[in-house]
Design goal:
Length: 448
C-alpha cells in the first residue's frame, strides 16, 4: 500500500490539519502524526482507526499505477456515458441589454433567430439521439442572446420534446439561461410549466449592477432580475445566480448579497449562487472598454469574495469533487451538443456562431470533406483528456479537472492538447487554507 498520487496536502502551521483526496472529493481533519505521514515526512503508521479511514477514502491505495488506471477509466466513462442526452438550443443571438463586456455583441458573425424549420429539425435530431442512446433523461436548455426574445420557438421545442419524453418514459428537464428581465407573469404562465431551473446573472450590488447591466435605453436591471427570481421560485423553479466578478465589481459584492438577503432570496433553499470572474474569452472585451480579469484565479480577489460570502452565510467553499460526479463542463460528453440559430452543432459555448469551429450541422451534409472535418473536431473534443496529456498524468488535480478547459488551453497555449490549470491548481489549496483559518473548519470537514 502506498500514498495516493491524488492527495492534496496544503501547508498548514497548526491544527486543525486538513487533507484532501481528489478522487473521492473527501476533506479529512487528521492528527499531526497522520498529516506528517501523508506529507511523506513521518514513516510511522497512523493509528489503526485513522489508517482504515485513509484507505476507505483512497488516501492510501494499492499502487500509484492502479490508482491512475482507476482514474483514467472513470474519466473515459463520463465522456461516453449514455444515461442522458444534453442539448442547448441557442434560439437567438438578439439581446435587449447592452452590457459593456458582452463578447456576443462584439462578434459580427453572431446574428439571427432560430426559425421553425430549424427548430423542427433540431427536435427530430434530439429524438433520434434519445432513441439511439436509449437514454433515460433529456436535459434541454434554452440559451442566447436572450432566449425569451424568441419565446415561440423555445416553447415549440420544449413542448414537442417534453411530449415525446412523457410518451416514452424518459425524464425531461427543461432549463433556461436568461438575463432575467423579461420574466413577466404572462411569460411565466407560458414557459414556467416546462422549466426546472433558470440561471440569472448579477454584476454586484444594485448601484454597480445598474451601471453595467442596462437596458438599451440606459435603465438599470437589478430590480427586474430580483423580481424575476421571486416569480420563478414561487412557481417551483430553482434559480442559480451567476454573480460576475471583476476588479471593478468585487467591492460591491457585499451590497449585492445584502440586498438579496433583504429581499428574502438569500435564505431560500431553491436559490443558489456562484461567483465567476469575467474573462476575455475571445480577446474582444477591450473592444467595449471593460476591464476583464486577466486570469481565472486571482488569490486576493477570491479571498475577498469568500470573506463576503462567509459574512452573509453563503456557501461558496464547497470542496470540488471528481468530474465524473460533478463535471465542470457537460459538453465533453459525446451526447451533449449545442445548436445555433442556423442549425450548426458545437461542443463549446465559447465558440458558438463561429462556423469554422462547428462540429456538425443538423441538416443533411453531402460534402464528404466537411463531414470528415466535423467528425474529427467532435471526436477530438470528446477524446481530449488529462489522462492523455503528459503534464496531467502525474498531477494530483487530474480527477478534478481532467486537463481543464480545451478552449482556455488553446487560448493561452495555442494548443488544446495542453493542460488548462486555471480553475483548480491554486484554488483547492487556498480553499483548504481558508477553511483551516476560519471557524467553518469545525463543521465543514469530516473528523477521522
Amino acid at each position: 500500500m502506498v500514498l495516493s498520487p491524488y492527495n492534496v496536502i496544503a501547508e498548514l502551521e497548526q491544527e486543525p490539519y486538513l487533507v484532501f483526496n481528489s478522487v473521492t472529493g473527501t476533506l479529512l481533519k487528521v492528527s499531526r502524526n497522520t498529516y506528517e505521514f501523508l506529507k511523506g515526512q513521518d514513516r510511522s503508521r497512523p493509528r489503526l482507526i485513522e489508517y482504515a479511514q485513509l484507505v476507505k477514502h483512497r488516501f492510501i491505495v494499492e499502487s500509484r499505477q492502479s490508482e491512475f488506471d482507476y482514474v483514467a477509466e472513470k474519466l473515459a466513462g463520463y465522456r461516453c456515458a449514455r444515461h442522458a442526452v444534453i442539448y442547448t438550443l441557442t434560439t437567438t443571438y438578439a439581446c435587449n441589454l447592452r452590457c459593456p463586456y458582452c463578447y456576443e455583441q462584439a462578434i459580427g458573425e453572431r446574428s439571427g433567430h432560430m426559425d421553425r424549420r430549424t427548430a423542427r429539425r433540431a427536435i427530430e435530431v434530439i429524438r433520434d439521439d434519445l432513441a439511439r442512446t436509449k437514454a433515460a433523461k433529456l436535459a434541454l436548455t434554452l440559451y442566447g442572446g436572450e432566449p425569451l426574445l424568441n419565446l415561440d420557438i423555445g416553447l415549440f421545442a420544449l413542448d414537442s420534446l417534453k411530449e415525446y419524453c412523457d410518451g416514452n418514459g424518459i425524464q425531461f428537464s427543461g432549463s433556461i439561461i436568461s438575463n432575467g428581465t423579461l420574466f413577466s407573469a404572462q411569460v411565466l404562465d407560458r414557459v414556467g410549466p416546462y422549466l426546472h431551473f433558470a440561471q440569472l446573472t448579477l454584476e454586484g450590488g444594485r448601484r454597480y449592477h445598474d451601471s453595467v447591466r442596462r437596458h438599451a435605453d440606459g435603465r438599470g436591471t437589478f430590480a427586474d432580475i430580483v423580481g424575476a427570481a421571486h416569480r420563478l421560485v414561487e412557481r417551483g423553479i430553482r434559480v442559480l445566480f451567476r454573480i460576475q466578478v471583476s476588479p471593478e465589481s468585487v467591492d460591491s459584492l457585499d451590497d449585492c448579497l445584502g440586498e438579496l438577503a433583504e429581499s428574502g432570496l438569500l435564505a431560500r433553499p431553491e436559490v443558489r449562487f456562484y461567483f465567476f470572474p469575467i474573462l476575455d474569452v475571445h480577446s474582444v472585451c477591450s473592444a467595449r472598454s471593460f476591464k476583464c480579469c486577466e486570469e481565472y484565479y486571482d488569490r486576493d480577489m477570491f479571498r475577498r469574495v469568500w470573506a463576503v460570502a462567509r459574512r452573509r452565510c453563503v456557501d461558496l467553499l464547497g470542496i470540488p469533487g471528481p468530474v465524473w460526479v460533478s463535471p465542470y463542463c457537460s459538453f465533453v460528453n459525446e451526447n451533449a451538443w449545442i445548436i445555433d440559430p442556423r442549425g450548426y452543432r458545437y461542443k463549446c459555448v465559447s465558440v458558438i456562431g463561429h462556423k469554422n469551429e462547428a462540429t456538425g450541422t443538423i441538416f443533411p451534409e453531402s460534402d464528404p470533406d466537411s463531414l470528415a472535418v466535423y467528425k474529427e473536431r467532435a471526436e477530438a473534443f470528446v477524446a481530449r483528456s488529462g489522462a492523455h496529456i503528459p503534464e496531467c498524468r502525474e498531477c494530483r488535480y487530474l480527477p478534478l479537472c481532467d486537463g481543464g478547459c480545451a478552449h482556455m488551453a488553446a487560448k493561452f497555449s495555442d494548443a488544446s492538447d495542453k493542460p488548462s490549470c486555471h480553475m483548480h491548481r491554486q484554488v483547492v489549496c487556498d480553499k483548504i487554507r481558508w477553511l483551516h483559518d476560519s471557524e467553518r473548519s469545525a463543521t465543514s470537514v469530516r473528523n477521522v
